[in-house]
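Data deposition worksheet. Section B asks for the primary sequence of the deposited chain exactly as it was used as input, without tags or linkers unless they were present during the calculation. Section C holds the resulting structure in token form. Section D is free text for depositor observations; keep each observation to a single sentence. Incomplete worksheets are returned to the depositor.
Section A, Depositor: J.P.
Section B:
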Amino acid sequence: MAFDLTAASAVLKEDYLGPVREQLNNDNYVIQKLVEKKQEATGKEFYVPLHIGRNNGVGYRSEGAALPSAGNQKYKQSTANVKYLYGQIEITGPTIKAMRNDKGAFIRALDSEMKGLLRDLKDQRARALFGDGTGRLATFAVNTTVNTLTVNQIKYFQVGMLIDIVNNSNVVTVTGRQITAIDTTNKTITINGAALTTAATDYAVVTGDLNVEAMGLGGIMNPALTLQAINPATDTYWKPSVMANGGTNRALSQQLMRQALDLSELAGGKIDLMTGSYGVRASYEALLQQLVRYTNPMELEGGYKALEYDGRPLIVDRYHYSNTMYFLDMDEIDLYQLSDFEWMEDDKGSAIHKVPGFDKYEGTMFAYETVVTYRRNAHTALTDLTEPAGYSV
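Section C:
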């Protein structure tokens, strides 16, 4: 019997969904921890209750004096929206026809497409969950009528990526330009099409991603950002502690790390995870060597290893903001999902669909999710840290 689209669709859903979801959830330790305790959202917009105040009806009194006036716990509702992540595979009709009597060949072709989709979904999700929801990849320097553009960082770019250019008013001015080359030493990207001029306030996003990405740690740790419909300028409790140095990088020290932990604990946080860039970890390793200390890596669940400070693991990620370390109370952060990774099915329950007007078929995987926090002031950001040469890209 031929290995037809019906059989292919069953394989796509049954044999690939489980492994894909498992690998995505274990992409890095932070995502693994978020997925372990994910919350199920029940609508596009959902409410996140926040405990913002204690019962003030307490106090000591002298014998026979009037009791304190009754008080109550204070709460506020924040709101959040899931964001929509998609990935697609595409198989042409001739490919399917050529492999109709060879299930193994079809599976190999499908496997190749799935591995590519998995890699790209992992990459997009990981970047977003360390970002701020805007999709910002980098800020441009002043570039005048050129195709090779200088940027402030290149680690978020990839050859072949399609980008939009956005101005200081958050308006897309150029769309769909493909990156054809990247120079990590000079921090430049080369794009196709006509030469461009950019201002120092212009920035790049993945094409179509402006302000529609999932919220991530970068947004939670930005004290000026309105988050979950609460403005920290008016609700001053709604901001993390930030230890900055006015934009001037300084050496990492144990004193800075201790102060960051203390700031969170003074606000009631219980820090159980530290995160940073690879350059920050290298700086911490150099600090341990200066102090003539050597610590065996902590063994974490899932096979992860981490350096430790005061019993807390330091986890690194390629998409973490550079020159920055986060001190996180993971009990106060959750991943909200309206849908875990699933295949988009047609009305017949098939995961492979005919593309109207073309001799090809496609499959789409999607997830609807975002990151929320319940106590923003439980976390601390330690910024403006020096990284060794070659790390700040």
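Section D:
The radius of gyration is 24 Å.
Residues 156 and 249 are 21 Å apart (CA to CA).
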